[in-house]
Amino acid sequence: MENQRSATGRRAGLVGIISNVALFAGKLLAGILSGSVSITADALNNLSDASSSVVTLLGFKLAEKPADEDHPYGHARYEYLSALAVAAMILFIGFELAKTSVSKIINPEPVQFTWLIAGILIGSILVKGWLSVYNRRLGKKIHSDTLLATAIDSRNDCVATGAVLLSGLVERFTGWHIDGIMGLAVALFILYSGIDMAKNTISPLLGEAAGPELREQIVDQLRANENVLGWHDLMVHDYGPGRRFASLHVEMDSREDPLRCHEIIDNLERECYQSHGIHLVIHYDPVVTDDPELDRAKMMVIQTLSTIDSRLAIHDFRMVVSPGHTNLIFDMALPADLTGREREIKTRLDQGLNQTGDTLYYTVVTFDPEAFNR
User: Fold this and answer.
1) Contact 9, 57 (CB under 8 A)
2) Do the beta carbons of residue 81 and residue 59 sit within 8 Å?
3) Residue 81 CB: number of other CB atoms within 10 A?
4) Closest Cα partner for 157 from 196, 126, 136?
5) Which of 107, 226, 307, 315 is deepest in the core (most CB within 10 A)?
6) SS3 state at 190
7) Of 259, 258, 268, the residue nearest 231 (C-alpha)
């Protein structure tokens, strides 16, 4: 599977290098013949795309390196880094094109636009459109952010070259000097796409929350097992495509045989890897299901929290009865916008629980990010 992924990435990189070098040569000739700054800039954009394809090729090559003593999780994040490098190149080209276009707006020069040049630009649009579809199809097939980023870049090039073609035709038939204006518009579009691409690439490197699709894949498997009463604290660590590790807590009846629960958990972990390629580690949480007093205390906590904020939820609920008071020990899923208000929430919870005065309750609360417990 990994060898097939790497081979697909290398093939896409080679296709990109050959195509973009050919487009660069054709557009550079057209830019020299016409004196158009936007065509020349578009040619340089294709040269940067060829460089990006080299980066993509290198990224896939490095990502396939096996795990070693210093990197036990493998080197698959090189693919994310290569996608980030592609985004950086796009931003650089957009910035340089913007500078050149502003200069052309201030000092406009006539463009010698011929039908040969128009043909070169139309051919470029067709090639770039095909490259966009090609990379997007392969990117979805192997779930590669790098190839999807390259597909977006190729789509942007279609827009950029289309704008250059339009400006040439407008100047030829009207005499209006819009080469610089069109170049600036293209540059802004490229910069916007580069920023968006960089943001989407940096997110998994920083450690983003599990997406809805991945969460459902794991949780659906748990729901299908009648021994699992609940789950919480799902954390996913992404070390690159094909290198995802996750941890999760599952709740099971405390009356069940621990050895049987251990066997069930082992099976769930194996099934998750076989079905989704995720290395899942499950923590076993035994829960008491036959204590009416514990159930009553838990319901009191839930009802009190609902008066504070309906989004607050709890898990890992335990109760320890001591002379003179009762300890209620549990974890609370805290929405991100309530971070920093933990002490306030706990104080209001304690006050609500002890309004009746029948029993003195002490709460021991561990606050968890809601992102792990959706």
Assistant:
1) yes
2) yes
3) 19
4) 126
5) 315
6) helix
7) 268
Is 187 or 273 the better-scoring residue by pLDDT? 273
Structure tokens at 20: 């973009």
- The residues near 92 (Cβ < 8 Å, ≥ 6 apart) are 48
| 25: enclosing H helix or E strand | helix 2-34
How far is Cα 62 from Cα 75, in angstroms, rounded to an integer?
7
Alpha-carbon span 357 to 359, nearest angstrom:
6
- What six digits make up the tokens of 211? 């997406």
DSSP per-residue string spanning 96-133: HHHHHHHHHHHS-------HHHHHHHHHHHHHHHHHHH
In the block, tokens 């604290």 appear at 233
3-class DSSP state for residue 256? coil
Q: Sign of torsion, CA 144 149 152 158?
A: negative
Torsion of CA 106, 109, 110, 114, to 10 degrees: -100
Cβ–Cβ under 8 Å, residues 164 and 158: no
DSSP of 281-334: EEEEEEE--S-HHHHHHHHHHHHHHHHH-TT-EEEEEEEEEETTEEEEEEEEEE
Model-level pTM? 0.59
* Widest CA span in the chain: 95
Token pair for 223: 């729901």
Tokens 């592609």, residue?
86
The residue assigned the tokens 């095909």 is 130
What are the tens digits of pLDDT across the range 331-374?
999 998 999 999 999 999 999 888 866 788 899 999 988 877 76
Q: Please give the structure tokens belonging to residue 12.
A: 């896409």
Task: Express each pLDDT in 165-210 by its tens digit.
Answer: 888 888 888 878 787 787 787 778 778 877 887 887 787 777 766 6
Angle at 240 between CA 234 and CA 246, to 5 degrees: 15
Question: How far is it, in rounded angstroms, from Cα 339 to Cα 311?
Answer: 13
Q: Which amino acid is at 28?
A: L
